[in-house]
Every structure is written in structure tokens, then in C-alpha cells.
Amino acid sequence: MDPQSTLPVAIRLTNVKKHFKDRDVEALDGIDLEVAQGEFLSLIGPSGSGKSTLLELMGDIGDEGGPSDGEILIEEKTPQELRQARGYGIVFQDSTLFPWYRVFENCLLPFRIAKTKLRKEGQVKRIESLLEMVGLDRKFWSYYPKELSGGMNQRVLIAQALAGNPRLLVADEPTTALDVTIQAQIIELLGRLRQQLGMAILLITHNLGIVGDVADQVAVMYAGQIVETAPARELLQRPLHPYTRALMNSVPGLDADADRLTAIPGAVPRLGAFPPGCRFAPRCPIAKAECSEKIPELLEVEPGRFVRCPFWKNE
How many domains is the chain built from? Predict the structure, then answer.
């Protein structure tokens, strides 16, 4: 969250850890994040970095599947309070609509599940408003999911997640399997909905290229840890952590004239097989011997910028 922000916090994660006892695997190690009300934060990281585990914890908050340690608060509500009223909506990466229900019926399902007190006519008006808001023409409202394109399905899933009028929307890889043009449309849609509804958005993705125009803040994950957080524009213009720099260098620009992409050597370490010390050290071009001895802290190196690397100034 912007350190200058005076807005209430939509979601706060404090030292969140997750250890899977059955596999003796540490998936998350001390995650600290804040998203202010109305803010758009994008959580970036490669496959296997722990992004989806973090999302699952938010879905299971207060249950046995929750964090091993630390705290997750949404609008300052405790897990017990969130059992009563969850002020957030989630679009999961593998979300699918029920194929035997039409679009409109799919969007009404959250009301049935939550046993809302909102009258039937109020539910219908809410869904009509949301489907119009996500840009889905009325002629599609009576379609079955199989009759829709991937982009249209994603719009319906977003409308469904917003049915309960959440103040926080969590979206996990909402543009996966969509072509580049549709990806841009979905991200632009999320940005517009944030403005119209005044809600906070936590976007979980592996694609840095899709967040530049809409995100306020970016947090970068690697091997179960946050390695850098910063205002989006600052991070994209001047990444500080060696992993973030390498990630940016691996994304070709529109004017790039190169035969090959700049790849990051090595691979993301497997859960349960993290190297000692800095988890990026084996792949880092500026690593020193001491990097393998101690896990670096996430420190504020500039106002509003946090980096987990003591040698971030070394280009």
C-alpha cells in the first residue's frame, strides 16, 4: 500500500506462512501485504512462487486450510467474523461456469449460496447492472457457457464474483488462455470496474506486461517470499531486485529487434527444495558468497519501495 495513503485497508496480510505438514513443504514464508480500499495491487511471480497458495488461504480463511502462521484481515475483520460476512469476491484461475445453467442463472447462484436477504427483484436488477457493466450484450444473457467465447466467459465470471457487492475483488490469472487483445480488454475492464465501484483489486498474475496501465502497486513474489514492492510505474521503469530486473529483461518490447529473448538461467526452486540464504542467489548475476548464508530481509530502500536484496544497487 502507498505509505502516504490514508484510505482504510481492504486487506492486510501480516507475516503469513503456510507449511504443508503432509509433505513437509514450506510454501509461503512471511508474506506482508496491504491493499487500501480502492487500490489496484498486482501480485507478480512465476509458476511455483506461491501466488495461488496465497489465494487459497484467502478462500479458506478461518478454516483448517488457513495459514500456518500470521494473520489475514479483510476490512479489519477476523477470520471468525468473515465466516458471517465476506466482503470480497474471488475469480479463481480455473473458474468455470456451470454448463447446465444459462449466463444469467450462473450469475444468480451466489445469491442462492449465500442465502441473501435481497429480494428476487433486487437480485435480478443487480445482475442486469453487472452484466451491462462488464460489457456483455443482453442477447448473450440466455446463452449457455459453451456458446460463449473465452473472453465472454471471463466477463461473466467477473460479474458473478461481484454479485455480492464486494469491496475487494481477488482475481487469479484472469487472462490465462486468452489472446493478447482479449487480455488487454479484461485488464482494462478490471481497471474500469475499480473506478466505477470504488473497490480494491488484488490481481495475481505472472505477466508484468499487462499491469502497467491499471495497477497502482506491484508486489513481486519468488519462491514463497515477497522480493520487491513498489508503485507500478516506478517498478516497471526501474526495477531494483535482481529477479525483477531479470524478469523485465525477459519481456520483449514492441520495438525490440532480437532473435532470442533474454532468458533467466536455471529454474524456480521446487517447494521443499529452497536453497539456503537468498532463494534467487543460484540464478542471480550479482550474487555474492554471503547471499547463500542468510535470508535477506525485505527492507524499505526508498520511500514506498521495499527490496529483499542488500546488493540491489549493484547493476
Answer: 1
pLDDT digits (tens, 9 = 90+) for 124-161: 888 899 899 888 899 999 999 999 988 888 899 989 88
Q: Which amino acid, residue 174?
A: P
Strands (E), 37-146: 40-44, 69-74, 88-91
- Domain span at residue 108 reads 96-165
Query: What is the C-alpha to C-alpha distance for residues 155 and 232, in angstroms, rounded to an integer?
Result: 25
Whole-structure pTM value = 0.85
* 174-226 tens-digit pLDDT: 877 677 778 888 888 888 888 888 889 888 888 777 777 788 999 999 998 99
Report yes or no on 110 lying in a domain: yes
Q: Is residue 149 part of a domain?
A: yes
C-alpha to C-alpha distance for 58 and 40, rounded to whole angstroms: 17
* Residue 112 lies inside a defined structural domain of this protein: yes
Of 191, 131, 208, nearest to 162 by C-alpha is 131
